Amino acid sequence: MTTPSAVLAAARRHEDRLIGFLRDIVAIPSLSGQEEAVVKRIAQEMHAVGFDEVRFDPLGNVLGRIGDGPRVMAFDAHIDTVDVKDRDNWVCDPFKGQIKDGQVYGRGAVDQKAGMAAMVYAAAIMKEQGLLDGVQVWMVGSVMEEDCDGLCWHYILQEKQLAPEFVVSTEPTNLRLNRGHRGRMEIRVRVTGRSCHGSMPHLGVNAIYRIAPAIAAIEQLNERLADDPFLGKGTCTISWIGCKTPSLCAVPDEAEFHIDRRLTRRETRESALQEVELALAAAGVEAEVFTLTYREPGWTGLVYPMDKYYPTWLLDEDHPVLGAAVDAFTQALGREPEIASWNFSTNGVSIMGLHHVPCIGLGPGPEEQAHRANEHCPVEHVVEACAAYAALPGVWVSRSS
Question: What is the 3-state composition of the chain as percent helix, strand, coil, each rounded to the nearest 5?
């Protein structure tokens, strides 16, 4: 096995190509369901650095394999991004991948194409440094995460595209090792009324008025939700309100709102729905309460419906995957990592939350940069993440043989 200093040295030798590749994929817009161009560019780079197998699955994820041993592990980076609606607030073109003051700027730079670029070159280092004894490593560029986190890996695992022993999420962690995060779900509350002409409102029942106490009840519910010292507090907030009405001169006969619900440890879909139902009942509101289902086509045209419930997940402090990740990080970078959790949600909701495959997070850049104008990621983080990824397969096999 190569020495730890050689792993980091190899990542530094590849820095120009690594960062050039990152700039290339940042320059390719890739909204959810529109990732075809960027996954094909990623596949091209995988071939160029010597992957043993590169393929697209029917949903549109790009999967690259390096090594052919019996042990299977995987790394994940979603390569779709949110849109850019505020170009006037950007100091750099969001689709140029510009380097400024040691940072790569652009939409998706930190969320999360930097992780993808680091993964591809980590695979190259694994191969050239002989770090693949007994193992095959899959690098997955996953799609549609921004619209439906976990859908991509729900498809991969449910349809048996891969069966890894564990998965490393390369979502931004600021180079910390993250071992979980709160879950989330999308809840809709709908109230009905009776429409009539707006000039005679006494003849109808205004659904907006009927829903008003429900809004206050959800605000109060947020204050009562469970807390956890590691993952943080469960939360709920109303993020959208709408109504159905024959015209703007009529009393609405239906009103509804959307709840963004974040679930901490030991909170479930059932408990969260029950809390909403009880809060509405206490406020005297009769309403329909339900979760939403995602049914949008991928860039391949495949529709793979998924309930918008994304479970909380947390890897145990003494789990062997975490131990291997700590050792690999320390050996590669010469310092011990901080252990933490994400604030936002990741594909871990499916990997570990739904399918119970162990998952750990390590990614370049701070998560606070995600979805912001002037999104950027430190070049040094990308290089160091690449080295830590390259060290992990050998450490895992040696610790778990």
Answer: 35, 25, 40
